Batch of 3 targets.
Target 1
Amino acid sequence: METQFDLIVIGSGPGGYIGAIRAAQLGMKVAVVEKDKNYGGTCLNVGCIPSKALLESSEQFHAAHAGLKAHGVKVSKIELDLPTMMSRKDKIVKDSNNGVQFLFKKNKITPVTGLGRIVKAGAVEVKKEDGSVETLSTKFIMIATGSVPTELPFLKFDEKKIVSSTGALALSNVPETMLVVGGGVIGLELGSVWQRLGAKVTVIEYADRICGMMDADSINVLQRSLTKDGMTFMTSTKVTGSKLVGEAVELEFENLKDNTKGTLRGDVVLVSTGRRPFTTGLGCEEVGIAKDQQGRIQVDNHYQTSVAGIFAIGDVIAGPMLAHKAEEEGVAVAELLAGQAGHVNYNTVPSVIYTHPEVASVGLTEEQAKAQGLEINVGKFPFSANGRARAMGSVDGFVKIIADRKTDRILGAHLVGPYVSEILGEIVVCMEFGGSSEDLARSFHGHPTLSEVIREAALAVEKRQRQM
């Protein structure tokens, strides 16, 4: 294998492999160093893709139990075949792995399996599985090593009883009870999977509400829906300790409002209290790459670290830990290295919670806009007034659009309801072009479609919404 490259990417997750592909398209000779046998990083192997596979399967199972009857479809003797469900998930992951390998081959990218360590600017040492070490030379290095789940001191992962998101994707049976520590996106999504499959799920959240950074109205709709489906929420609650009691895990907790204390027992505890940058063994300290107090690699406006020629993207730097954010940063670095004007518009990074109903958002919330002293108009329209949503039997939720009062430019949008992850895109595009609520309001939307709710919300900004 040749050992001289234009760019070496460490990490093959969405940011790494997408950045590598763009660099190769721009004529660079690229290698990707990956410590695991499978490409795709956390997102593809133990994150976004397998979790969505299980969410889809669990929704189908739940619909067979609770939703099909209303459509006149009678199903008897419904049984869960968990091994088949898991095999389907594993096949989706494997197919995605193969897809990345195909793209590497198509774009003449050299894959190198082993633990990468930066020796200096321009040199990456790779320790192979057999213990051998190879040193690769390069003009530039891109760090794209992602993040790992945060472990609590008194809740160490064994991935059987006390599980991270990784373990929660591979349980061999449905627990009778599951305790979810942390009411963020990961906890709600994976909690939803096991709740639909039959577990009694309790979510314990330190803050006074779940998903505290997202639009409050949207999250209220989501919490009501999840509660109706049987999920229990304990907010303003701090977990203070744990112990094994027989086959169960007992958690000690304290209510932060009245200081009352108590215990809860669960067959499985899912710890979803956040993620931290993964830079273990990377050599950052040895070569002088600066980090902030949260352990994130510090970069300039062009993603270059404190060491010239070494760049970093994705979860290891500041910003939301989202695959699509990492992808755009990877592309930006590749284009900057090629002398182009690579950039990322962080005002249009979308966020999605793939529960039922889904929650999707982009830009500022009402609270954030008001905190910045902005004068805004807000348009809101419910799915209950949409013909397609009624036909689907999915009427919970709404679309909310926030626009600048003077210019009508869209500052943010928040959606909760059926398939909002798919229809958010048109608002993202509109915002990317500096569009206004009037632009959306005057654009055709097919009838009947869910996307009409976006148009009605845009009309509602000027109090022009119509009943459908």
Target 2
Amino acid sequence: MLNYQNILLTVDFSEHDQLVAQKAKALAEQFHATLHILHVLDNIPMPDTPYGTVISLTEASAYELLENEKNKLVRISDQLNIAPAHRWLIWGEPQQEITQLALKQQIDLIIVGSHDRHGFAMLTGSTAKDVLYHAECDVLAVHINK
């Protein structure tokens, strides 16, 4: 049986993160794996920053929206007992940033929430589907009913 060593939980700060996080934590405990967490900033404008797209969670900025996102990630990470070295906040396109981080951190399993899609949204795709097709490791899509 395959034993996962590094599990990446992706969060979007929706009301469904708790369900996805609980499943990720349970799997990490079951496999005695290291749990990592990632939120990709694709919903707020990127200011001119000296540190690039990977955001430090320990340095304060004057950008209020960024500080709110950092606080959300820290809060979820603390609840899950995820070590600071395994917390990631990155600006970019979600599918690309998730799969790139998974490669860099030698992730064995990516866990994403999968929302029901209808109409136009079904035609344009989803982050979960894109990660599934592009990741070089296993992907668990946690089905979320709206």
Target 3
Amino acid sequence: MAFLNETIRGTSVLGALRDRLAGLADSWNRYVLFRRTYDELSALSSRELSDLGISRSMITRLAYEAAYGKNA
């Protein structure tokens, strides 16, 4: 005779809160990375950006890709 033991693991209130806080922390960290990248690129002169092969119109996109990935 075969027996099957199955445990259903429900999400507790504390587990849900922990997951939500982890998501908020991840979102905040990505935003901070975006702002830091954006601010650092914006602080460069046009000549320095040109030397890097970057135009001013690319700064927002590059900062976004650095924080959220290319396919986000």
